[in-house]
What does this fold into?
Amino acid sequence: MHRRLLLGTLALAASAAALPAHALRMPTPDTRAGRWLQVSVVDRATGRELPLYRHGGELWVAGRPGARYAIRVHNRQGERLMAVMSVDGVNILSGETAGVQQTGYVLDAGQRADIAGWRKSDSEIAAFEFTAVARSYASRTGRPDHVGVIGVAVFRERPQPVAVPAPPPALQREQRAEAEAPPAPEAGAAADAMASRKAAPGLGTGHGRRETSWVTHTEFERRSDRPDELLRIRYDSRENLVAAGIIPAPVPRPSPTPSPFPASPAGYVPDPPRY
It folds into this structure.
């Protein structure tokens, strides 16, 4: 069962909803992640897409304490996609400890949108904002172990069934081996570096102020139980990313050498000003 969506809306699969798309700037090459679905992190105060830094096999972004942010998504494909999204290990729609089989946002072909907060209802969100780890939503709900990561699991939609001839046995074996291949292991070197080289308190995502954000519902049948793409963006303060070597440290400007004769005036010593 399918429903036609209104132009410019983002739908949720099953029990989820849809978010209005916004007019977005074209992203620069170093701010986007993903092949099926392009994902970036946006500072909502400036509208700027934050740079992504590659380090230790992972992507990192620098957050500013107190700043509200959004997860910007762009479906670059000619078909609908579903994005199951998590922040700090929590599903942003249901508040459950996140799993890839949970509900997510559905984007039409070519659609763009900013996901700006925790979904509270069909008409309201609580804004994402960078905050101290202890004040993050995950920590306040007793789940602090995965604070500091944004996750997006992308699923393609199952097409309408068509009659096709069975592939040769050799090809069937090859397809079965590919389907049963284990997922790639997650990189851990960067996490070890961050744990030992913190320069400031870490960042989490808070449960910010309420904002209006309308959504609709739609049906979506996944092509596979496994995500077609799994994106992971880690975040922390700029100070901590510099301390861990993820962001290059700024080069200090050399201090000017003091000169004993900065002006070298001609003539003799003038009288001081009168009282």
User: Anything to note?
Assistant: Residues 29 and 51 are 9 Å apart (CA to CA). The first strand starts at residue 11 and ends at 13.
